[in-house]
Amino acid sequence: MNTDFKMVPVELLERVATEANHMLGFTYAANYEECRSAVDELQAMIDAPVSPQAVARQVALSASRKNRIYIAGPMTGLPEFNFPTFNAMAEKLRAQGWHVENPADHGDTEGAEWADYLRFDIESLASCEAIMLLPGWSKSKGANLEVHIAKQIGVTILLSDGAESPQAAQPVAYQRKSKIEGSEWHYINDCDVAEAVYMGYEVRPLYTNRDACLLAISTLEADHE
Prior knowledge:
Layout: H1 10-24, H2 32-47, H3 52-58, E1 68-72, H4 83-95, E2 99-101, H5 114-126, E3 130-133, H6 141-152, E4 156-159, E5 173-177, E6 186-188, H7 193-198, E7 202-206, H8 210-223
Parallel strand pairs: 1-2, 1-3, 3-4
Antiparallel strand pairs: 5-6, 5-7
Helix pairs in contact: 1-2, 5-6
């Protein structure tokens, strides 16, 4: 059942609410038929197929990402979570006319875990046409995952002064692990990284021992054939 209430006229919703309130209060029994008619009309609109035009309006097109940029870099383990560096870059980019998505803006949220921040940041990244990498990003697990996703969805990658080249820091493989205590790391393919993050797994990139990584992945694929 379609539930896009943005397409339902406000006056109809108000009429349903008003008449339903009367009916449930049993104070305006004469309005029962009016309420029933309004509810039926609303249900028909909800059940109606969504037009292609409506779907197009709901999906963010490339024009909505124009002039928007996301900043990626290391945070964990650095003084003040490296926020001053993020904020300085954000100020510089805004002066150039960019709309900036700065992960430092969400601050340190009480109770939030690493995966909570990453999910929030990936949504911000997806709304942008470019990503600006800060120095040290290649040593950040989260930034590595953001760069991987940026490549997959066609986001332009820009480097700040002193930032490492993505080509020089290309991971050779990825692993995922459940958050359940005692869980082990398992190799996954590049195309499964975004899904693993979405499903709540902890994911890490690997940069060394390429042959061993590729052998493990080929064994994994053979086991699933």
